[in-house]
Amino acid sequence: MQSADRSATEMATGEELVSEDLEKMVLDLKKAAAKLNAVLECYSPKNYPANVLKINKESWMKKIDDAMTSVIEFFLEIQFLDNVPTRVQDETKEIVNQVKTKFTEFVTEFDLKIL
Q: Are 92 and 75 within 8 A, CB to CB?
């Protein structure tokens, strides 16, 4: 009987660890998305004249690309896990779709302003 109790406890602990790990991964994704949003806001083409955007384009775009890459990497880590609840999959897809939209709008607005 103790063996069965131990197995049940180990399984519960294992499930909790997976759940905690998944929660941490989702939190990391949210942090990466927040960082990307902050960088996009900081370098918004609405805040600068075209000449300032042109001068800083390379360094600013690198920071934005790096932040976007982090979002995608955290998202893919979650998506490739087994047994991720549908709710978590939907939540993370929504986060990524939102930042992709903002990223695309930013790049388009940035490039149009410096043309």
A: yes
CA pair distance 60, 9, nearest whole angstrom: 50
Alpha carbon distance 75, 108 (integer Å): 24
pLDDT in tens, 81-106: 988 999 999 999 999 999 999 999 99
Integer Cα distance of 21 and 26 in angstroms: 9
User: Which residue, among 14, 15, 25, has the nearest Cα to 88 in the 3D structure?
Assistant: 25
Q: What is the value of pTM for the model shown?
A: 0.82
Place of tokens 């939209």: 101
Q: Where is 15: in which H helix or E strand?
A: helix 2-42
